Queue: 2 jobs
Job 1
Amino acid sequence: MSLRTPETIIETQAVTKRFSGSRGLFRPATFVSAVNAVSLKIRRGETFSIVGESGCGKSTLARLLVRLLHPSEGAVLYQGTDISSLSETDMRRLRKDLQFVFQDPFSSLNPRMTVGALIEEPMKVHTSLSRPERRQNVAELLRKVGLRPAFSNRYPHEFSGGQRQRIGIARALASGPKVIVGDEPVSALDVSVQAQVINLLEDLKAEFDLTLVLIAHDLAVIRHMSDRIAVMYLGEVVELAPNEALYNEPLHPYTQALMQAIPIASPHGRSMDAALTGDVPSPLAPPAGCRFHPRCPHASSLCSTEKPELTETGTDRMIACHHWEKFAGNAQTHLREPPRSANAEKRFTLFRERCQQQEPTTADNP
Ligand code: SF4
C-alpha cells in the first residue's frame, strides 16, 4: 500500500463499526453505528488522546485500532498494512507491536495465573527467548513499572488497583510493542494513583520509544501528556487539535462544553452550571445534519440539514462545524472565570454566611 506517510504509524480510513441492535419477530433488525466514518492519522512517537462522553464510540475506535474488533466498513492501516483484512495468522505476527491496556485492571488479568506467568505469557507467544531469559525480563519489567521482582509469585488479587494496572502495563510491554492503546487506563483508580500511573506511562513511552493512544472521558486526565487530542461525539470526530491549541482555544461548541465541565479546585472558580443541556441522542437514530445540533447553543437552520465535514483549519487542526470561524479568537475555556448561574451565586452566598456563623469567637478561644 502506498497510503503511508513517513510519520504515520496508524491510519483509519472512513472506519465504521456497526453493532446490531434490538431484533424481534415482528420488528426489523436495527443497527447502532458506534463509530461512523472516522479518518485519523496517528503519528509515530506521539501521545494521541481520544476524548468524549460515555457512549461516544471512543472505546470501540480504540479496539478497532488494534483489531480487537473488525470494522464494518473502511480500513485501519498499521505502518501502511491494512490490518482489518489480514488473516489471523498474519495478524498474530503484528499483534506483538499493538498492545492494549484495559480500563479494569482486575478483570483483564487471569486470577488463576501468577503475576510472573501473566507477564511471561506474551514473551512465550511472540519471542524465542529461553525460559531463564523470559524470567529475567519479567523481573526487569516489574522493576520498570515500580514493583518488586519478588512479586512475580503472587496472584492479581493480592495487589491494589494501581499495582494491578502496573502489572497490566508490564504485560503490555512484554512483547516489545510499538503502540500501546490504553482504554481509560486510570479511570478505575484513585486520583492519587492516577497521577502515578500517568507518570509511569510517560516515562515508559520515552524509554521504549512508544506511540501511545489514550482513551479518556475527562479532558483533565490527559491534559499534561497528550501531543494531540481528538474529540468524539456520537461516533464521529468533531475536533482534532494539538494539546495547547485545544486547551487554549477550543473551537467546536462541544469541545467548549467539555472544557466547561472540567472541575476547578476552587469554590470561586468552579462552574456550577450544567455545561451541556439535553441528553445524548440515541445512536440508533442520530440527528440529521450536525449530530450535535439538538444540544448546540449556536445551531442554525443549516446545522440541522447539512452535515459538517471534518476539515483542516490550516493550523494542524481539524474541525467539523459550519460556524467554527465565528468562535475563533473568542472561545471561552474553563481556565478563565466560568459563568455562574443565579443558583450557584445563592449557594456560594449561603456557604459564606454559614462559614461566618461558624467562625470561632474570642470567647471560644481560651
Ligand atoms: Fe453547532 Fe452547527 Fe457547529 Fe454543529 S455545525 S457544532 S450545530 S454550530
Job 2
Amino acid sequence: MLWKDVCEIFNKIEKTTKRLEKRDYFIKLIDMVKEKGKPEDLKKICYMAIGRVYPEYDERELGIGEKLLINAVTSIGINKDELLEKIKETGDIGLAIEQLKSKIKQASLLFQPLTVDEVYETLKRVGEIEGEGSQKKKLRLISSLFLRASPIECRYLARLILEDMRIGMNVPTILDSLSVYFNVPKEKLEKIYAITNDIGLLSEKLLMGDLENDELKLKLFRPIKPMLAQLTPSIEEALLEMGKAQFETKYDGARVQIHKDGDKVKIYSRRLEDVTNALPEIVEAVKKIDVDKLIVEGECVAIDKETGKPRPFQDILRRFRRKYDIGKMMKEINLRVYLFDILYKDGVSFIDEEFEKRRKVLEDIVGYENDWRTERERIEEELKSDKIIDISYKLVTNNTEEAREFYNWSLSIGHEGVMIKNLKAPYTPGSRVRTMYKFKPTLESLDVVITKAKRGMGKRKDWYGSFEICVRDDEGNLYPVGHVGTGLTESDLEMLKEEIDKIIIRDLGEEVEVEPKIVIEVAYEEIQKSDKYPCGYALRFPRVVRFRFDKGKDDINTIEDVERIYEIQRGRK
Ligand code: ATP
C-alpha cells in the first residue's frame, strides 16, 4: 500500500466537514486495502487516521516536538526562515512543509515511493529510540522519510509525527465505516472496541473475518472502557423502572481499574492511564488478595482517618499525579479503594454475567458483604480504620423509604449520593446505560472543556479572565454552552495561564482559541434555552468547581446530558 494513496484520501476526508462523507471516504480506504494491501495495513491506517502510532490503550507517545521536526526538514533542504514564516502564515506546520517541499524539484522522483508500512514502522522505531545520541538517530530516520515524501505526503507525515492529523477522523466514524463496509451492527463493534480500546486491531481482525479472535476478548493489562451511569431524577423513578435494585454509596473519589496477575499489578485511572506508580500501598494490598488473575473496579477515596470522611477530591488528584516523593505523600494522604465490580477472574470473563453474580464473586473474594442493613455497625466502626481494600456498601431493596434512609446515611458519612444498580444487568463497557443510575442531591455538575480564553482585565490583566466552555455530541464535535470566570483562585488563574499558553491554536485578539485539552467541572444555577449558542442551551451563572485532569475531551458531558438535566430541572420546578 502506498502512503501517497492513503494521503490522497486523507486529503478528501480533511476537505469535507460532513461526517457521512468522511465515513464514505474511509470506506474507500478499506476497499483499497482489501484490493491492494494486507489486513495489517488497515490496522496501521486506522491508527494514523486518528494521529497515532500506538493503539489507544497504549499511553506511549512518539514524543517528537516541533523543534526536531523542523530540524529534520531543514536537513533535507527546506529553508528554516521560510518555513517559520510559512508556519505563521498557515498556522499548520504540515501545510507549511508541504508548500515548501513542492519547491524542491528533484527530490521524491528519484526514490522508491513510500509505503504505509515503511512510514508506520519507521515512526514506531523513532518512538523506541532511547539513550545517548537518540536525538540524532531520530532526526536521521525522520529526515529519510521527508526526503522521499511528495508534498502532500509531507503534510500528513508532519502531522502524524506531531500526533495531530487534523482531518476530523475519530473512532466513532471509523466504527461507522467498518459497520457499513463489513455489514456488522455498530453496537457489536462498539462493544468490542470498548473491550479492546484498539481500533487498529479491531479493523484488522474484521478484514480477516476473525471477530472471534482471542485478541479481541478481555485481556489482562489492557484496560477496558468503563461502564457509566445515567442520572436519575429520583429514587422512586429508578425503583419503578428496576423493581428491586442494589443501592450503593456513591463515593467521592476517583475510579480505578485494577489488573492483577500473580504479583504483577497495574492500576488504571478512569481515562485508562496507568497510575500504578503513584499508588504503591494499593498495589501491595492488591498483591495480598488471594486470587491469581483479576480485573476489578472500584472508587479510590482519600480518607481522613480522624473523621473517617473523604478528603477533598483535589487530594486524590495530588496522589494520582504525583511522580516523586510518593512515600511522603502517601503518609499525608491515605487512600482506600472501595471495590464495586469484577470483570475477570482466573481466565473467566464476567462481563456478560448478571451484576448480582458479579457482586457475589467480589464478596467471596473480600470475604464479607458490607450489607448496610445487617452490617452497619461494623461498617461505621471501620470508617476510620487502616483498611486499604474494601467493598462498596450495599443495600438491596425495593423499598423507597429504606433506600432514602441509605442515601441520607451515605451523605452523612461525607459521600456524594448513591448508585442504583440493576441486579440482572451485564457489564456494558464504554456505555452510559439505564441499568446503572446515580442519584445526587443537587443538579448534576457538568464536565466541560475549555475551547477559548479571554484576556483578563483589571485585576486579572496578567491572566485570562474568562473561558468558553463546551459540551460534545456523540461524534465528538464541541458546542459552547457558556463562559465561566468565577470559582477560580489566583493560583488557578496563574496555572491556567501557563497551561493555556501551551495549547493556543489561534490568537483572535481579545481572546485565544485553544486545543480542547483542559476539562473542568462546573456548577450552575440552571440550564436555559438559548438562541445564542448553536446547541440551543446555555448555563446560567456557571462556576468552576474543580479541574478534572483525570478526564479528557472524550469524557466530557454531552448535549444529550444537558437536555436531560434541563428536563429534570423542569420537572422539579
Ligand atoms: P461523576 O463525574 O459523577 O463522578 P462520571 O462521569 O465519572 O461521574 P458516571 O458513570 O456518571 O461517571 O458516575 C459513576 C461514577 O461514580 C463512576 O465512574 C465511579 O467513579 C463513581 N462511583 C462512586 N461510587 C461508586 C459505586 N459504588 N459504584 C459505581 N461507581 C461509583
